[in-house]
Structures are given as C-alpha cells and as structure tokens.
Amino acid sequence: MKVMNCPLNGPRNISEFAWGGEVKPMPDPATMGDKEWAAWLFLEANEAGLVREWWCHVPTSYWFIAERNNITDEIIKTYPATELFNTRVEFAAKAPSGSGEKK
Amino acid sequence: MIPAFVPLKILRYGFRKKYPAERFIPKQQDLKKSYDVVIIGGGGHALACAYYLAKTHGITNVCILERGYLAGGNTARNTAIIRSNYLTPEGVRFYEQSLNLYRDFSQELDFNILYSERGHFTLAHTDAAVRTSRWRAEVNKQLGVDSELIYPDEIARLCPHLNMSDHVRYPIMGALYHPPGSIARHDAVAWAYARGAAKLGVEIHQQTPVTGLIVENGTIKGVQTSRGTVYANRVMQAVAGNTSVVAKMAGFRLPIKTIPLQACVSVPLKPFLDQIIVSGSLHVYVSQSSRGELVMGGSTDPYGLYGTRSTLDFKEGLLGHMLELLPMLGEVKVMRQWAGMTDMTPDFSPVMGLTPVKNYYIDSGWGTWGFKATPVCGMTMAHTIANDSPHDLIKPFYLDRFVDYQQVGEKGAASVGH
Lengths: 103, 418
Prior knowledge:
The complex is a heterodimer.
Chain A: E1 3-6, E2 10-13, E3 17-22, H1 34-42, E4 50-57, E5 62-69, E6 74-80
Antiparallel strand pairs in A: 1-2, 3-4, 4-5, 5-6
Chain B: H1 5-15, E1 34-40, H2 44-57, E2 62-65, E3 81-82, H3 89-103, H4 105-109, E4 116-117, E5 120-124, H5 127-142, E6 148-150, H6 152-158, E7 174-178, E8 182-183, H7 186-199, E9 203-205, E10 210-216, E11 219-225, E12 228-237, H8 243-250, E13 257-266, E14 276-279, E15 284-288, E16 294-300, H9 312-325, E17 334-344, E18 351-354, E19 360-364, H10 374-387
Parallel strand pairs in B: 1-2, 1-12, 2-9, 5-14, 12-19
Antiparallel strand pairs in B: 3-8, 4-8, 5-7, 6-7, 10-11, 11-12, 13-16, 13-17, 14-15, 15-16, 18-19
Helix pairs in contact in B: 2-7, 2-10, 3-10
C-alpha cells in the first residue's frame, strides 16, 4: 500500500487522497481573454518526470502541494500550499470605466 | 511408411523453398532520406492510417517509426471491446462507422481477427444511470444503432449468470442492451493492418525512437530519430500515453493527462459468458475471450503516471464488485495483469486532426476508447493527412474545441464514472 505524507495529518494511505493536477501559474482573471482563460483551465504540460501537483487529503479537505516522479511513481516531498501561494488573488471584476489600477 | 520417417519427411517439407514462411512485414532496411508521410508510433491506429493512406489515397511513400515493437503499447493492453452505443451524436456516428469497418475487416484484409458479436450490456444501478441509459438508447436509435433499455426480467433471461438479487450493495435496475457489441483479437487487428500496409509499400521501422521534430516557420519538415534525420512533407503522431511528450517537441500543449488504465485476465474457463458485461457505476467490465479467459477491466487509476505498474488497490476494487455481479467466480484465479498509459481528456472525447504546426497531424486522447476506433481512426486520419483538412466524422474532435468552449461531453466513454 502506498503512503503519502500529508503536511497536516502525517503519513496516510494514498487512497485517502485526491489528485488535483499540475500546479499552473494562473493568469490574472481580471484582464484575461476567454481563450487564454480556457488554455489555463484545460491545457496541460503533462510532463514525464518530476512534477509539482495539487493534492487533497479528502477526509479533512486539506489541499497541499506534492512533488512526484511520475515515471518511477515516487513521492519526493509534500508541503503546504502557502509555501507557493502567499498573496490573496482578487476575483472581483474590475469596473468597466477607467483604466483599472493594478493591485 | 515407418512412423520414424514421418518427422524427417515433415522436416524436409518444411525446408523446401517452394513454401517459404510468410513474412508479415519485410526485413528492416535503412531509413530513406525523406518520405511523403512519416507516422510516429506503430500501434493499431498508426498502422491503420498507413494502410488507408496507401489503399484509399494512393500515398505509399510512407514510413512508420515505432520506439518499441509493433503494437506493443495500448493496442496490446485494451480489453478488445467494440461497440457504438455512445451518448453524443458525434461519438455514435464515429463509432458506428468503426463497427461497420470491423464487420468486414477479416474479409477485406484476409486476416481472421476472431470478430465475435456478443451483445453488450451496460448495467445501471441507480435511477440516474437508468436515465442516462434511456438517453443513450434514444440517441442511438435516432442514429440507426441497435440499442435498447431493458429491465431486470429481460436481463435475467439474456444473462442467466448475473446475480440479479436485491440483497447486494448495488442491485441491477436496468441495462442498456446493445446487440452488435463485439470483441475481436486486438493483436490480429494491428498485424493485419501492418501486413496490408507493407504489401502496398509502407515501410515499418521498429526500435526507432523519434528524438526530435524539425519545425521551420511553423511547418513540420521532418523528424530526428536514433537512426538519423528523416525529412517528410507530412507527419502524424499516434502515440497514446506519450502524446504530450511528442507534442512538446512540436511546441504545443494538449488538454491531456497521462493516466494508467489497468486490466487483468483470469485462467481459461469453459465458455459460459457470451455477453459483454459492463457496469459504469461499479467500474467493472468483463467478457470471455475466445481462449476462455475472462478479460476484466475497471476504472482508470486515481492519479497520473508515466508507468505501467499494476496495483492491488485496483484488483481489490474491480474484483470485489465483479464478485457481486458473478459470485460463482469466487474460486477463479487471476492469471495475468497489466496496465497501459492512456491519454485522458477533460470531455472524454479524443483529440484528432490538425495541430498548430502546419502539416503536422495528431491522433490522441484515446483514454477510454482507443481499440474500437482503430479502423475509423485510420480511415479518417488518412483522409485528413491526404487532404490537409479534417474528415467530417472527426471535425467535432478538433484540438481547439477547448479554447472555443465546444467540448464533446462523452458520458458513454468506458472506464470513467459519470
């Protein structure tokens, strides 16, 4: 049985986790066109080798980051998402008038 | 005649030059400097495409480059089920054409693929699944596909081995019954296309990995291989599992994740199971091959991997559910297990046709339905390459449907829960 180390709950059975897909830099939702948004949503690098991905510990709904080697099926390390994401993303649409200031 | 001489006689007969053993594909030669068409990948789809390029379009200066051996990837790893009872009209039309090509396959290619019509049952265990079955049946009938929603009394009559009891975790409430559902010998399909294509002049080069693509001004010029550079006017990739890796060499990304799909077979049993039994909710599909083995598959793995290892988790999940459907298999042993790397798309439909690179074509996204599409895929991709324009049947599966928000949501796909 494969074990994954959850940053919040410690080592747990892999069946407790859900795979969330690769970590991709999100384009600014306020300035993005539909096509660029779709590209971010659907297109994957789908690299073979070392990958950085979102994972979720389902019983506790805890999302975190895992680095894996997806050729050898090895989990390299896991850490809280706050190590990569430490600023708040503003999803509110900008006012249509004016140039709209960057945060 | 003294019996001791018989083996010698047979030996002599065997060595006579008058009856040489048939070679399916000619001995490997040196790569030429250039071809009209280079196909990356040597699986069923690639071989079918090469065959139709040569036969239908008269393009015979074609070269297939395969990294490993012929048809050793997902062509060898699927569960060999053929059907056309999909949910979307796009999917139904596409697969109905494939089924028709399969019916005449053994005749046309003079190769027995052991095509066997069994009847395909997609079991429904919830009201939602019954509703989807009715929806699929109506779409199918509208498009001329033999497909019907049936209820437990008729299921029990047609599949006497199924456990129809109410005292199970997921009782059977109905089934989508598709009489033309069939199985065939998957290796034979690939070999037949390989032999057919080679007879028409197509070159098949095994153990020749493609290491890079030559793209100039957005147009494909050729490929680099372990045996040197090969120039080509047109190039297609058909390398399910490694699709993104090859596409990266061409410089574009795809809406594809590489996820393993596992399967296994039991020891051979006397023929008892005529039907193909599938349960989307239980993640089980099972049929009995011509050799008597039960061919069993389940759902895709829970996370992506570029590997083909098998897991106990998979077998526990699959076999636990299967024993609920067919409890008499409790003592039967699993004989072989394997996995294949599949291309999964967000809408469970393939990605086929043109790409951002000119004269470069793609056949991918076959996560859940690759084998049964082999003939139609070869036919439509050959048309696409020959005319540099997608065949009508595959137009809905174009790559940019994702950024155009025109996905083809296929709830009739196998191996995925809906």
